[in-house]
TrEMBL record:
This is ATP-binding cassette domain-containing protein. It comes from Aurantiacibacter aquimixticola. Coiled coil: none annotated. The keyword Nucleotide-binding applies. The keyword ATP-binding applies. Residues 2-207 form the ABC transporter domain. Keywords: ATP-binding, Nucleotide-binding. Gene3D superfamilies: P-loop containing nucleotide triphosphate hydrolases (3.40.50.300). InterPro entries: AAA+_ATPase, ABC_transporter-like_ATP-bd, Molybdenum_import_ModC, P-loop_NTPase. Pfam families: ABC_tran. GO terms for molecular function: ATP binding; ATP hydrolysis activity.
Length: 207
């Protein structure tokens, strides 16, 4: 099982339930704005504690309200690409990548730095400051940074949102390469059953 999740969350006033049970290499979580998709990713990453339920990734239980288990975020092996990317503004692209590499446990990376830079086509960006990058470039660097931290799985929040059609299409194919060549379980969020769901083995909806 890549992702086995059944949790009730309460990020604000109202409870929300998220149920995902997937063996696919890519699972997609869809649902309208405000339904709780980002909150679900935050819970899987360990940044939001669910009210109840269980979260397991690749067979490892990360949260279980029944046994009061809540693995700390830094021990979950998560590569999380936030919707707004959140690059460190005071470090160049190379510095952002180096920071992630220092976080990786020795031998944890399933793919080399040079392969990640090649797959995400960011070799020409290494000297740039984050503020000078386009939206698509920023997303590519954010995904590279997540991969370099040696994650066991990848969470992508709306990776194609706010990109024009050409850039969205290019990033779509890069995610496809990550799926096929790196083989990490990927859970990605989309507000609609858009093109991105073509990447997925499984699609789950929050209502
Ligand atoms: N820290 C918080 N405090 C209070 N309410 C919150 C908090 N985080 C999220 N919420 C509320 O929880 C609900 C779900 O938010 P969330 O961002 O998870 O939805 P979403 O499905 O990802 O939406 P979108 O597609 O617009 O990003 C929203 O009503 C939001 O206002």
């Amino acid at each position: 099982m890549s992702f086995e999740i059944d949790v009730t969350l309460r990020p604000g006033e109202h409870p929300m339930r998220c149920v995902i049970s997937s063996t696919a290499s890519v699972a997609v979580l869809i649902g309208p704005s405000g339904v709780g998709k980002t909150s679900a990713l935050n819970a899987i990453a360990g940044l939001l504690r669910p009210e109840q339920g269980r979260i397991a990734v690749s067979g490892e239980t990360l949260f279980n309200s029944a046994t009061d288990l809540h693995v700390a975020p830094e021990r979950r092996g998560v590569g999380y690409v936030f919707q707004d990317a959140r690059l460190f503004p005071h470090r160049r692209v190379a510095g952002n990548l180096a920071f992630a590499e220092r976080l990786a446990e020795k031998g944890a990376s399933v793919i080399s730095r040079s392969d990640i830079i090649e797959i995400l086509e960011i070799g020409d960006l290494l000297n740039r400051w984050p503020a000078t990058l386009s939206g698509g470039e920023t997303k590519r660097v954010a995904i590279a940074r997540a991969l370099l931290s040696g994650p066991k799985y990848l969470l992508l929040d709306e990776p194609l949102a706010s990109l024009d059609a050409d850039r969205a299409n290019a990033l779509y194919h890069l995610i496809e390469r990550i799926r096929d060549e790196i083989g990490l379980p990927i859970l990605l969020v989309s507000h609609s059953a858009s093109d991105i769901t073509r990447l997925a083995g499984d699609v789950f909806a929050m209502k």
